[in-house]
Design goal:
Length: 333
């Protein structure tokens, strides 16, 4: 295509094309102006600008009338597809803006992935069936943050533990979701219930996360605080493996409530003296205005609330205060 003609085409606007179609359909500048809400002079200027851009005469102008030329007729025919395409684009964009359509990538690791993510995805999909919902599988909880920072995921689940420093989340927005206790699980240590301190388990073998993991750091910190060194018998970062080892009587473990599972042969022991807490948060980029993120947060809140209901009757024991609560900022949402 000639460079000058290509440059001229770049000045053709949707307003110009719409004016041409209105003049052809109404047969006069004044009727077209009335239909589009412009003055007759403005419509005339738009047609003239379109003719200059295209380098052809689109209408024959008489003292009291206009007649469309062959070029004008052809432009009218071609513009129908153009306007239909623009209307289609506008409809698609409205779908993205309203979250009826769009793409959302979620990520989570650990117990939040197992207990909350499936429920949340189901909630989002039921509300936005035309949206494309996918999961990004991280290797560790730290990978969740990196995936969101790098743009590989849109929203994810992260954890903040009371004895460990909070992560630096520059450029990211966090939404508190759950506040949960960490409890001891075992098999041969008596029925489920409350224990005053983790010191009550000082002589037990422990199942713990890998060396240097958050779980490992917390257990060491609590041991130092209570004056004993936990004896680690087995290590795993998989909550299912940890529960399996506990189920076989190979040790006890300190786990968050979301990691309890449903094995009734395992007992749980709630610590009443300076309990350890974990805060579950949702994370997304501060610059990401994807409207599906708001729906995802709502779905995670509903998933968390469903899990709260389950914990009230889990393990056949009732406590005066819940072990896990929705963050106060989200209660009632």
């Amino acid at each position: 295509m000639d460079a000058r003609f290509q440059s001229a085409l770049s000045t053709v606007s949707f307003t110009h094309v719409r004016a041409l179609r209105a003049v052809v359909e109404h047969g006069s500048l004044s009727s077209a102006a009335k239909d589009l809400g412009y003055t007759t002079s403005a419509i005339s200027q738009q047609i003239s600008a379109l003719e200059r851009s295209l380098g052809v005469s689109l209408f024959e102008r008489g003292p009291r009338s206009v007649r469309v030329t062959a070029a004008g007729e052809r432009m009218y025919e071609l513009s129908a597809d153009l306007l239909e395409s623009i209307a289609g684009i506008a409809d698609v964009m409205r779908g993205y803006a309203s979250a009826e359509q769009g793409v959302l990538r979620l990520t989570a690791a650990g117990s939040g992935a197992a207990q909350l993510l499936p429920r949340a995805v189901a909630g989002i999909a039921s509300k936005h069936p035309a949206a494309e919902i996918s999961l990004v599988t991280p290797g560790t909880s730290d990978s969740v943050v990196e995936s969101i920072k790098a743009g590989f995921a849109d929203i994810g689940v992260i954890y903040e533990y009371s004895p460990t420093p909070q992560q630096l989340l520059e450029g990211l927005t966090s939404t508190p979701l759950l506040h949960e206790e960490m409890v001891v699980i075992g098999r041969e240590q008596g029925p489920s219930g409350e224990r005053s301190s983790i010191r009550d388990f000082a002589e037990e073998n422990w199942v713990c996360g890998s060396k240097g993991s958050t779980q490992d750091q917390i257990l060491k910190h609590l041991g130092e605080r209570e004056g004993f060194v936990p004896r680690i018998a087995h290590r795993s970062d998989d909550p299912d493996v940890i529960r399996g080892l506990v189920n076989q009587g190979l040790g006890i473990a300190l786990v968050p409530v979301l990691s309890l599972g449903i094995d009734r042969s395992i007992h749980l022991y709630r610590l009443t003296d300076r309990p350890v807490h974990r805060r579950v948060q949702l994370l997304h980029r501060a610059t990401d205005h994807n409207p599906l993120i708001a729906s995802a947060i709502h779905a995670f809140v509903k998933a968390a609330d469903d899990y709260l209901t389950w914990t009230l009757t889990a393990f056949g024991v009732t406590f005066d205060l819940p072990m896990l609560t929705l963050d106060t900022e989200l209660q009632g949402n």
